[in-house]
Structures are given as C-alpha cells and as structure tokens.
Amino acid sequence: MKRHLISAADLTRDDAVLILDTAEEMARVADRPIKKLPALRGRTVVNLFFEDSTRTRISFEAAEKRLSADVINFAAKGSSVSKGESLKDTAQTLEAMGVDAVVIRHGASGAPYRLATSGWIDAAVVNAGDGTHQHPTQSLLDAFTLRRRLVGRDAGLGRDLAGRRVTIVGDILHSRVARSNVDLLHTLGAEVTLVAPPTLLPVGVGNWPCEVSYDLDAALPKSDAVMMLRVQRERMNAAFFPTEREYARRYGLDGDRMAKMPEHAIVMHPGPMVRGMEITAEVADSARCTAVEQVAGGVHTRMAVLYLLLGGNEPAVSHARTEETK
C-alpha cells in the first residue's frame, strides 16, 4: 500500500483484498472479551474533522483505540479554524506535536490530497471524506459487507467481487460515496449501475467505469445489492427534482420494489437514512438491509487501514490465529 489513503482509485486489487482480509482478522478480535490489540501502541492519530460527522468520526475513534493508539479529536467548531486559521497552519501545529497519522474530513474536495503532498506534515493521511470527491474507507467497508454477504466470510478471504452486480441509487451528483464505490467496486471486479434522475448525475459520468440508468424498476431484478443514497440538500442551491413525493415515487425503495430483487440480494445505505424518501421504514428495518452491519464493518475496516498504513503489510493477527488452530 501507499503511505496515504486519499482515493479509492489509488488502491490496486491486491491492496483492496489485503485490506478486506485484514478487516476479517480485526473482526475476529471484536469477538474476544478484550477487543484491543497493541499494534499502534505509542502512535498518535489525530481525527481532523472540518465537517460534522457521527458514524465516520466515532468509527475511526473506535478503530484507533482498539489498536491502542493515542487519539486526539479535533473539531473545526470551537477551534482556531473558526477564527480563520488556514489548513496549513493547523497542519504545522499538528506536525509540531509529532503526530503519526491524520484522519481528515473536509468540505473542500482535494483538501486531504493537499495535506498529504504539501510537505506541511510528516504523517500518514487518511481521507475521511472531502467535499463531493472521495470517501475511500466508506467504499472499503461497503465492499467488506458485500463480500461477507455475497461471497461468504471464510470463503471470501483472498477473493474479490468479480461478477457481482451492484446498483447505486440516488443523489450521485453530490455523493463522494458513489464516486468511491464506483472506483473500488470496479477494481474488485463488480459490475456497477448508477440509477438517478438526469439532474442528479455529474457531468462526465459516461466516462466512469459503470453503467447509467434512469429506471430503478428495470435495474432491481438484475442486482445482487442495491445501495440507496440520501439526497444531500445541504449541498444543493437549486431545485433538482419537482417534489420529495415525486422523487420517492420514482427513485425510492419500498417493500414492493424490494420484492422485485433476487432473493439473495441485499439493501445497503451509508447513512444517515431519510426514511420515507429514498427508503421506507419497511425496507430499512428488514433483514435484507445491512445499514447497521455496515457500521460494524466500518470499525473493522478502518482498523485494517490504520494498521496497514502504520503497523505493517501483513494481516495483524495471523499469528494469533495460527496459535489458536494448533
């Protein structure tokens, strides 16, 4: 793996499979009475969040603490950033403190790349979401969930998602999750279809390694997994569809639509869910919905990423598994 994780497009198939296999090892640690590993003892990780977050921030913090790292949480609100301090000055402050890794979420696309390549800080940089650009660890945890559900936990080790069909539905235009998933799932061999109204598809989407459709009902019977995305109103400055009711009628997933999916197919959502719009309560609370499972997998996957960036390039607890099987 490279020193930083900025984009899902930076990962080779071998990189991605190594992370997913290591995440499986981390999941086994979570089943133990004591869920901690000493892998990052003495290392300091800063969670540098310039945007609000619940799942991602808490997931990274849990992952870091389970690896025994020293954790510093930084929120832009209430910090010198709210007084006008630049990213450069913030980075140099962290450098002076001797941090080993920075997990950054920023509203500006490209901010993590700038931090990683600027020379301002000598630390590994992990992109926890930048603008409408990338969210690589989200795509990794989604791939982790897909592989477990569609390939199998033990049989999935060393395997990719070749031939699996994943449909991503909703606000593609503003979604860094969609961009990251298209990149990573294509690398892992999956066939991806984007479904959205024309107004919520980005310019140049025809060059992405996926298919594009405007018809959700036609895509559902051919899908192994359907990922529903929230409409990101906070990033919109215009009307992209007539009404919420019309959007839900055309692009929302309800029980009748879920019944059109193959029996083995799953429903995914990166959260937060807006029940009644892109997904109904019936679907969100069904056994086929993996939203909560994705959150759990997020801790394992982010443990794997941090371990591989800071700790080594082999699965963290392989030796422990060998001892257990003797």
TrEMBL record:
Aspartate/ornithine carbamoyltransferase carbamoyl-P binding domain residues: 3-147
Gene Ontology biological process terms in this record: 'de novo' pyrimidine nucleobase biosynthetic process; 'de novo' UMP biosynthetic process; amino acid metabolic process
Binding residue positions for L-aspartate: K83, R176, R230
Documented EC number(s): 2.1.3.2
List of residues binding carbamoyl phosphate: R55, T56, R105, H135, Q138, G271, P272
Single GO MF annotation: aspartate carbamoyltransferase activity
Keywords from the UniProt entry: Pyrimidine biosynthesis, Transferase
InterPro entries, alphabetized: Asp/Orn_carbamoyltranf_P-bd, Asp/Orn_carbamoylTrfase, Asp/Orn_carbamoylTrfase_sf, Asp_carbamoyltransf, Asp_carbamoyltransf_Asp/Orn-bd
Domain Aspartate/ornithine carbamoyltransferase Asp/Orn-binding: 163-309
Pfam families the record matches: OTCace (PF00185), OTCace_N (PF02729)
GO CC annotation: cytosol
Assembly and oligomerization: Heterododecamer (2C3:3R2) of six catalytic PyrB chains organized as two trimers (C3), and six regulatory PyrI chains organized as three dimers (R2).
HAMAP family associated with the record: Asp_carb_tr (MF_00001)
Function, in words: Catalyzes the condensation of carbamoyl phosphate and aspartate to form carbamoyl aspartate and inorganic phosphate, the committed step in the de novo pyrimidine nucleotide biosynthesis pathway.
Family, per entry: Belongs to the aspartate/ornithine carbamoyltransferase superfamily. ATCase family.
Name of protein: Aspartate carbamoyltransferase
Origin species: Streptomyces pacificus
Encoding gene, per UniProt annotation: pyrB
